[in-house]
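Appendix B. One record, verbatim.
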Amino acid sequence: MYRMIDSKSLKIKDSYFNTGKWVETFLDKSKKFVMYNHTTSELYDPLIKSGFKVERIIEPDSRKRYSYDPWYGLWDYTPKLLRMAPPTIIFKSIKLK
């Protein structure tokens, strides 16, 4: 959901359902960083179908700044936007037998 918010206006700029590959220029502008947008169900459902049990869904609190966080301030990760939406979701899962 994070990528659908414009970092400057803080308004919705894109559909949640606009999934797929996107490319950003990285740091010194000479490198490209490729990522993929997914809906939550596109991430969750394959875990279940592959025999995993999701124990927790974690969305780290992006309102705090950690000294060891290499992502803080990159791309559109502005403090205002980080206070509104977490850029990360974690599925804590275990493989069932």
